[in-house]
Design brief:
By secondary structure, the protein is α/β, with parallel strands linked by helices. It has helices spanning 12-22, 29-41, 45-50, 58-72, 77-81, 103-114, 132-140, 153-165, 213-217, 221-224, 240-249, 268-278; strands at 83-86, 89-92, 122-126, 145-150, 172-176, 201-206, 253-262, 283-288, 294-300. α1 (12-22) crosses α2, α2 packs antiparallel against α4 (58-72) and α6 packs parallel to α7. The structure holds S-adenosylmethionine. S-adenosylmethionine is lined by residues 97-98, 100, 104, 126-130, 132-133, 149-152, 155, 178-179, 207-209, 230-231, 241.
């Protein structure tokens, strides 16, 4: 009887080389292989370069192979690793939420600058998802009260977990519902005389779904097969959610308040025109992203006509 074949354990170098072929049909295979190997070994990517001869245990090898198999089926790297950097924060992410994008950091930076205007700004993040915007704002604006709203209970759980991890769980209110409706106060018969019909905020920030059905069908499998559809797609030309928010925002926004909206490529003009109809006196400006796409629309009531 021949002796059982004993495979020698993989070393870091071999493991990375093997993954190259497995991930050939995916985006940035070398980076994915390094990140997943570091994750399986519980070390940093730099450690892999420093110790290319480090052997893998059988358990580490199994874990790594399983991660590579999932990535070869286009599961996003951020979901496999369970977290994603956003500005200076590390956020947990999973299939319940959209993976925060770099473009959204532009909106957050603008919101931080704008919020200096108020001594105690109330900020509503509509469609909070992982809480990327809400948590960043709460961390960077210690004088703000943040409301994180989402139509998905699952997303709110992730947002709460991120807020807790970054020490701002008690400075954010998590509200479930459609757009700004969670800020509506009780029906007229329950309101006291003179009480407004809704809570007002100084700043509304929103990265709502803005992908059309047609665009969705053409998205990469990494996005289409794994990220929540309801976080991406909005009816018709992708503008329904943003327009609905604009159409209903007026009573919720303080007289010197502002709205910051993230938009998709080619949508800025239509959004600016709609905003100008609803807030004819507001100053409307646009911020480009790193690819010079008009990405963030700023509608500022305090800068009327300037
Ligand atoms: C594009 S994701 C943005 C997530 C996060 N704000 C970010 O920037 O990474 C949109 C989020 O809006 C939520 N959403 C979609 N329609 C909504 C609605 N009508 N009211 C409230 N939330 C909504 C989705 O559940 C999803 O979490």
């Amino acid at each position: 009887m021949s002796a059982p074949v004993r495979c020698s354990p993989w070393r870091v170098q071999e493991a990375l080389h093997w993954a190259g072929a497995q991930l050939a049909n995916t985006i940035d295979p070398a980076w994915a292989a390094r990140s997943l190997l570091a994750h399986a070994l519980g070390c940093t990517v730099t450690d892999l370069f420093v110790h290319p001869e480090r052997p893998l245990t059988a358990e580490q090898q199994d874990a790594y192979r399983s991660l590579i198999a999932r990535r070869s089926r286009h599961e996003p790297l951020a979901y496999l690793l369970g977290h994603r950097p956003f500005l200076d924060l590390d956020l947990i992410v999973d299939a319940r939420v959209l993976i925060p994008r770099q473009e959204t950091e532009i909106l957050v930076e603008k919101a931080i600058a704008l919020a200096q205007r108020w001594s105690r700004p109330r900020i509503a993040d509509v469609g909070t998802g992982s809480g990327a915007i809400a948590v960043s704002l709460a961390v960077h604006l210690s004088h703000a009260h943040v409301l994180a709203i989402d139509a998905s209970h699952d997303a709110l759980q992730v947002a709460y977990e991120n807020a807790r991890r970054h020490g701002v769980g008690d400075r954010i209110e998590f509200l479930h519902g459609d757009l700004l409706t969670p800020l509506c106060l009780q029906s007229r018969s329950f309101r006291r005389e003179g009480q407004p019909p809704c809570r007002q905020v100084e700043l509304i920030v929103a990265n709502l779904p803005y992908v059309s059905e047609e665009e969705y069908a053409a998205l990469s499998p990494d996005i289409r097969l794994y990220e929540p559809r309801e976080a991406l797609v909005s009816a018709a030309d992708g503008l329904e959610a943003i327009f609905c928010l604009l159409d209903t925002a007026c009573p919720f926004l303080a007289v010197d308040g502002a709205i910051l909206l993230e938009a998709g490529a080619g949508q800025s003009k239509a959004i600016r025109e709609q905003a100008a109809r609803i807030f004819p006196d507001a100053r409307i400006t646009v911020l480009p992203d790193y690819a010079q796409i008009e990405r963030v629309i700023c509608i500022d009531r305090a800068e009327r006509g300037r």
